[in-house]
Amino acid sequence: MLTTASKVLVLLGLPVVLFLAAGCALKHFTGRDQFKPRADEAVPLGSRLGGYDSAAVCAYWHSLGKEGREAERRFLEADLAFPFVYGGLLLASLLIAWTWLGRPFNPGWLVLTVAITVVADWFENLVQWQQLKAYVKSYPVQDGWIQVASVATTTKLVFFGLSALVLIVLAVCLLARGLAVGK
């Protein structure tokens, strides 16, 4: 039987370790980790909480250079699967914590926060991938689709943060319950 501290370590450690390992592997195998944009454009589009516009997208992609844009394209293609990997791990951890706490509320709330994260991330990747393909062929990026991707990025980051916060709260509740019982 796992102790409460072991349970908390599994709940928090497993998704973090696997998320970081899978993310690093994704960057390495697509070659994305080899191309660093200039300082002004250094923050990848998918990490911009405040969103971005067409000009920022073009500046970012331009700063990568031709080979960097090819690596970015490969990364975006592979990243279409990644939300399902980390989303599944995150949801599994949330549901395990929920179960260990005695199922204190409707699990639909847990599923909903992760589902919004995954769908937003997937849609963000799909739109960026399509727009990058156009950009590489010297077609202009479409402002409307870039705004959709930008909203998806912000939504992904907010709901990922919310899901992670809920996991931490559940882990703290589990730890507090374990300390109260003496396990």
Overview of the structural elements:
- This protein is mainly alpha-helical and 183 residues long.
- The protein has one domain.
- It has helices spanning 4-30, 54-78, 82-100, 108-136, 143-181.
- α1 packs antiparallel against α3 (82-100).
- Shape descriptor: elongated
What do the pLDDT scores average to? 93
Unreliable spans: none
For the biggest sheet, the summary is:
none
Q: Over all CA atoms, what is the radius of gyration?
A: 19 Å
Strand content: under 5%
* Proportion of helical residues: over 70%
Distance between the termini: 11 Å
Give the helix/strand class: mainly alpha
Number of helices: 5
Number of domains: 1
Please trace the helix and strand order, writing H or E for each element: HHHHH
Q: Quick one: how many beta strands?
A: 0
